[in-house]
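Q&A log
Question type: sequence-to-structure
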Amino acid sequence: MNTETLPEKGEFYSMIIKIDITPQTIVGDLLNAYPELEDKLIEIAPVFSKLKNPILRRTIAKVTTLKQASVVANITIAELINGLRKTANQGEIVLNEANNKNVDLPNWVSKEKIKFEYDACLDLENGIHPAGKVTKEILKLEGDDIYLLITPFIPAPLIKIVEEKGFKTFSERVGETTVYNYITKR
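Response status: OK
Response body:
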């Protein structure tokens, strides 16, 4: 067999497996099938420039859906999906929009009830995913104690994990690059 005519592994993968881009598409799968979409993803939502960090690329991109990514980027799912679909030569699709904007703080959120606070911004910048620390520390919550996780974006995949563990959450955008994520027991 003449290996000189075989495509590179990534090129071969993207030639064979072209996926339909939907809200349920995993970011890592998208970038494996369409490596050329990385720049478009970053253009649509600059927060995704963090995917250039190999650690975040190996961790967050493997579990984050495009729907979750739209929340992280604070853009509509239609804007994200159809921007990517256009670049990938897929037709535009109509999506029901869920509003990603802030709502009033729920009555269980009280600054006085915050017992633990973790500013994960620097860790995320250095490629350290806060999931392990957060999922361990929230187990120390008692009664109506609140865990405050500070991030530069809404950490949708982590929020999902925490909620699946039986906690309730609320995310509040308090600045252009600051989100307060409140976590408490159900």
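Response note: Confidence is low (pLDDT under 50) at residues 9-15.
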